[in-house]
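Dear colleagues,

For the upcoming journal club I promised to circulate an example of a predicted protein-ligand complex. I picked one with adenosine-5'-diphosphate because it came up in last month's discussion. The inputs are reproduced below in full, followed by the predicted structure.
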Amino acid sequence: MIARVILNNREHNIDQCFDYLIPDGINASVGMRVLVPFGYRNVSARGIIVDILSESEFDNLKPIKKVIDSSPLCSKEILDLCLWIKEKYFCSFYQALRLFLPPGIESGVKEKNVRMVSLSADKSEALLKAEEMISKRAKVQGMMLKVLCESSPLKTTDLYEKSGGNSAALNALLKKGLINISDERVYREAYNKNNYAPSEGYTPTAEQKVIIDHLKENISSSKFENILLRGVTGSGKTEVFLQAIEHCIKCGKTAIMLVPEISLTPQTVKRFVSRFGDMVAVIHSGLSQGERFDQWNKIKNGEVSVVVGARSAIFAPFENIGIIILDEEHETSYKSDTTPKYHARDIGEKRAMENGATLLLASATPSLSGFYKAQNGEYTLFEMVKRYNKMDMPTVKIIDMRNELFTYKNFSPLSLALQDEIRKNLENKSKTILFLNRRGYSTFVSCRQCGYVMECGDCSVSMTYHKNLNQMVCHYCGKTASIPEICPDCGSKHIKFFGTGTQKIEEAIKTKFPEARVLRMDTDTTSHKGGHEEILSSFGRGEADILIGTQMVTKGLDFPDVTLVGVLAADTSLCMDDFRAGERSFSLLTQVCGRAGRGNIPGRAVIQTYQPQNSVIKYAKEHDYINFYNSEISSRRRLNYPPFCDIISIMASGENEDSVKGFMEKTEIHIKKYMKDNPSVFSINGPTPAPLSKIKNLYRYRILLKADSNSSHPLLKELTKIGESLNKIFLSIDINPTNMF
Ligand code: ADP
Ligand code: ZN
Ligand code: ZN
């Protein structure tokens, strides 16, 4: 027989299949890794078998040297998927395969075992022996044997603890043939099960029932379908997921549940673990390599049926998948910004198709392109427009911050109206969440005399002041610098902080409301392991009245006693230089306001802004997704932006600005020639320095293309090939990148 092997080599020119003979008597099948001879000198190369054939079109095949795995590392479905990813996202086969394997599988990580002791003799016999030993100066051995008579098997460490035993005595018992010792595999756990009491499903509301029934039917009949669920915040989307997954397990199928990293809070994990117990694996970025490896193995070995995780969990090595769910479907974190630049939704759709599964995309504020597909019938649309408890959506007040300064002479970052609302909440002992789209103390340092702004020398972005470090920090590369006392440009002493950060809000609150108990949640306070969990559970236990935070407080939090949400500066996200700024602001405002009034008391939200007339803010105030969508989609159509086309970013970066620029000018000529014969690529912009023209000392130039969506462009493959032959210039291609920097 013949094995078709793809070699593990970074060089693109051998990123292809080679045929090898399988020597007689050797067990080799698809998905196993192998060592094969390669090149004139027959050096050993690693590879993976992607197909088994009875004959090959090539002669003089060399035999495989060695098969590394005793069972396949991945299924045929996954290998085919890797080939598809390679084509779609312009990467090598191995870059694709790596997505499906846990980090460290090639070198590092080992299985974790514990040593178990069990009784091998008959119990009554052993008990007699134990008594005899205790009376005859072999007391330690006797005590150990006695404990084993009560419970066997035991971990050696537990046995020592219970009996006062030791390893010498253990060996003596082993020699006497009274016990057995074995190593047993244990899994490093991703969560502590004991923290989660079991829970039962709720009786679905009428709106929930419609979709749950539909999903169950799909799962039972292995029907592939793309579904978009738009459900307002608090409508009980998670309960829908839980009941669909429960049905999956009943049918002997598996389920992949994706949530954005930022909402993968202990609270979220709890809802799944308490419902499904041991059937759940959890994958998130806080896991150690060993923990991650073990979660992967549990999935691979079929010991769990559900995985809950962030983006990368879409690659879980499940078979027989019944449902794949992306909660908060609109989140940009589902798109990878490193090669391969995949979108979890596309991988999910492909896997759902291969498995006869349902792809369920859910959000309170679906992405514009997702809802557009639902309107066109590409996705089946379901909607849940009521909160599960029939509570109203929070009432939203918009505060014009320009009046604060000029009319009320209020210099605080908290408007008078927001201060009033906070005071009411403190009196009523209700909780408040304050959201600021920014971390740090003040945004930047600038000179009032000449306008100098302190920037990171490596990244061309302004640096941010962090009070706890008393340093300026670059949020792109992490570089720190001390604060200048005089302006480096003009020598003036009027160099000042501008803007507002979470720390500054915390201080403002403490000044106005000294009695309030305040928690702050941002990257600075949550950077240590478990920091996130500490703050949330402290807030959940009622140890604070006000939670101040960045993006982290907007997602997935379900605290029934939060009745007030304050958005301190709605403008920071609106001013973003990106055609999706409106979409993102709307979703952010809706999400954050949705944290209020989830219990029995109606919620209120206060949005502070310098642009009160902005239509996005008005739609958010009315919780009016549909009209927001209609106005936004018509402007996208008019300006020809996605979903009406794809935007393709071609970025080159390198240390030498001239050579990067020169290369991109040649590329421009190449593309323009291509466009003459291929109208599917219809617009080119650039090359220009990217908005972030320098990161970590690399100069960046960009070309933006507009092209027909859903079609493949051979041009991009050509460019990838050219990119691979370059020296000291990195070329990357991104289709519909999530940020335009
Ligand atoms: P969403 O994800 O749509 O914002 P959740 O799934 O978090 O909403 O539900 C909000 C709250 O409502 C949760 O505390 C949940 O336990 C509760 N809930 C959801 N569905 C029901 C139901 N059918 N009966 C009772 N409580 C429910
Ligand atoms: Zn100056
Ligand atoms: Zn930097």
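Two points we might discuss: Residues 479 and 578 are 26 Å apart (CA to CA). The chain has 22 helices and 30 strands.

See you all on Thursday,
B. R.
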